[in-house]
Every structure is written in C-alpha cells, then in structure tokens.
Specification:
Length: 102
Amino acid sequence: MINKLYRFIFPQAHPADIKRKYNLPDSITLNVELTKDNWFVAESPDVPGLFTQARSQEELLDMVNDAVLTYYNVPKREADYVYDRLNIGDQVVRYHAQLKTA
C-alpha cells in the first residue's frame, strides 16, 4: 500500500529515460548460479562489484534492478526498475510492475 501511494506521488520514470539520464547500459550480462541451498546468485562482469541474490527468478530480477539503480545512484523516487526481463538459459523472466510508468 505504501509503495502504491509513493508511486502515485512520484511516478516511475520511463526506463529509457533513466538509462539516458544516468548513463546506464541498455543491457547487462549476468553470471547466474543456483547455490546448494537454492539461492539464485547473480554477478555482472559488465558492472564491477554488482552482486545480488534472491530466492526466485522473479525476485532476482527485482534485486538486479535494485542493485543497478543503487550502483548508478538513481534516486528511489525516480525508478523501481530499468530492466524488464532476465534471460536465464532458454527461460525469460519478465518484470510485472503493478504500477504503470509515467
């Protein structure tokens, strides 16, 4: 509920605008591994120091977006995501934002 109210006050900027404004790459390469205790761990050779983990592929996409936005110092009020899909082998995980972009 709080996130919906927050996004009502500060609408999500369009991902392409965020990428241009903060000089984010159009896409990033991730090395994704599944640990013995079933965590997805992602690391990017394109973005030194970018590392995150999650319990599911969908959560991993959220975590990657959060890590990238944090890495590039994108204010939270501007965006929740910039990448709308994650390709893992032959699977595609898509970002399903509940709120529409401005």
